[in-house]
Design brief:
CATH class of the largest domain: Mainly Alpha
Shape: globular
Distance between the termini: 24 Å
Strand order of the largest sheet: 2-1-3-4
Strand content: 5-15%
Length: 212
């Protein structure tokens, strides 16, 4: 497998975590978003959206991290990143969607570039924008964690799930945008427990070959 990704991309980060948790090896192909390599003709021939990540498995080209992670879960079901019970799976997917649908999309690079280019946003305004949506989503996520009496250290019970795969990169992004994380102690507990696992450690942005 080949993983086309950028070290600091949240969607790339989440896919690296999922691959590591599944124990799936891959060749790392760096796509430098700072140099707009994702907008070049060569990369757009691979993914017409010009977005990372892309996972290539033989002659199969997979795009969109949500779809790729679900594909991994179906093709490599062990270890499972979704619980066996249908209601529990819905709960875990809902947690992931707080990040994947409601926080990340309005804070990704093309949105922030547009805010800078079209609306004159400076770094302070960008941090305020990102912090607003991260805080709104994390408030809800924290409340969902607090309401789950079966939870034991992770987003769901006592082992990583897709919810944690999504959450941890968003925490990394929150730090980059100078969000005060102290108001969400349960989220920070999850982050610490995930951070103790090798699969998460090897996926961190700073551990990637293109990190700088």
């Amino acid at each position: 497998m080949k993983l086309y990704n950028f070290f600091r991309s949240g969607t790339s980060h989440r896919l690296r975590i999922a691959l590591n948790l599944k124990g799936i090896g891959y060749d790392y192909v760096a796509v430098d978003l700072r140099k707009n390599e994702h907008q070049g003709a060569v990369y757009k021939a691979l993914n017409p959206q010009g977005l990372v990540p892309v996972l290539v498995d033989g002659d199969r080209v997979l795009t969109q991290s949500v779809a790729i992670i679900e594909w991994l879960e179906e093709r490599y079901p062990t270890p499972a990143l979704l619980p066996p019970d249908v209601n529990d799976r819905a709960h875990v997917r809902a947690l992931a969607a707080v990040i994947g649908c409601d926080i990340h999309p309005v804070n990704n690079k093309r949105i922030l570039d547009t805010l800078r280019a079209s609306f004159g946003a400076d770094d302070a305004a960008i941090n305020l924008w990102c912090g607003t949506w991260i805080s709104d989503g994390f408030d809800a996520y924290e409340a969902l964690l607090a309401a789950d009496t079966r939870r034991a250290g992770f987003s769901f019970r006592n082992a990583p799930t897709i919810a944690d795969v999504y959450l941890v990169p968003q925490i990394e992004s929150a730090r980059r945008f100078k969000v005060d994380l102290g108001r969400w102690p349960l989220i920070m507990e999850v982050d610490a427990n995930c951070g103790a696992l090798e699969a998460f450690q090897r996926a961190t942005p700073t551990a990637q070959p293109d990190a700088s």
